[in-house]
Amino acid sequence: MTRTREFLPAAAAGSVTLGELTVNRMGFGAMRITGPGIFGPPEDPDECIRVLRSCIDLGINFIDTADSYGPNVSEELIAKALHPYPEGLVIGTKAGFTRSGPDAWELDCNPKRLRKQLEGSLKRLKLDRIDLWQLHRIDDKYPAEDQFAMLADFVREGKVRYVGLSEVTVKDIQAARKVVPIVSVQNRYNIVDRDSEEVVDYCLEEKIAFLPWYPLGAGLRVKGAKKVRNLDEVARRLGATKMQVALAWVLRRSPVMLVIPGTSKVDHLEENVAAASLELSPHDLEELNA
Ligand SMILES: NC(=O)c1ccc[n+]([C@@H]2O[C@H](COP(=O)([O-])OP(=O)(O)OC[C@H]3O[C@@H](n4cnc5c(N)ncnc54)[C@H](OP(=O)(O)O)[C@@H]3O)[C@@H](O)[C@H]2O)c1
Questions:
Q1: Which of 17, 159, 186, 258 is least surrounded by CB atoms within 10 angstroms?
Q2: What pTM does this model have?
């Protein structure tokens, strides 16, 4: 049976807007298609290519990446697997970090350097314009306004369509919006780590997409916490996995959530995308929020 686009699994959680672009709320984070410590090539590049192509087959039309993933590796693999890009695919990339080795992340948002990073991403992704370009962090070594002004320049020059921020407070977003329109915010957020509640609420009020990074972090790494025990319990009851429940919880938290779970494996991708159609009852939510 041929599936029409509306019925592709990733569409089941509905859509969200990034400026005038509309994407499914179930997206993909392409940080994990790199080597250990997010450095160098992945152990199984062919499987990573299959993951990226499966994203499209499953109806994902938003992919998050960054020039620092690898570095360069994630953007290069995306282009290798998917260029020429299918209509409607939105790629969001980021800049700000340099990399000297596995798990080493050095922030440098010297505005001149940001321009170099943007030029590199355009080249690697084989694009004339990047749909969503995110400042990976605000670098306090330079005036924040200069970094925002650089983003505004990129939009004016037609090299970037929309701008997003990452790991920011409400005050940061408000300051940036005085200089350049902001369509998305990407902060760490999951069922256990809810430090960004205020930012999530602000994004809903202001119709800014919120991209929770590390959305599966809870189920994977936090052992013994009450929330994780509840996650196991709710998953058992629904016949789902705890990863799926963790994603369904985040999606349910706000209509502006655009989830970007990351994986290097097709079976994990399929499992994660199936969470788009997982319904949580008021009783499930009560337990998960307890
Ligand atoms: N803005 C920022 O500062 C920032 C920081 C970090 C990440 N991000 C973005 O956010 C995305 C998501 O964050 P993340 O990758 O750190 O965390 P995540 O999506 O919460 O978890 C990814 C990890 O979970 C594993 N995994 C995925 N699906 C699984 C499943 N169904 N069962 C078991 N294990 C599973 C993956 O390993 P396998 O490969 O083995 O599946 C990977 O190690 C990234 O890809 C990146 O695009 C942004």
A1: 17
A2: 0.96
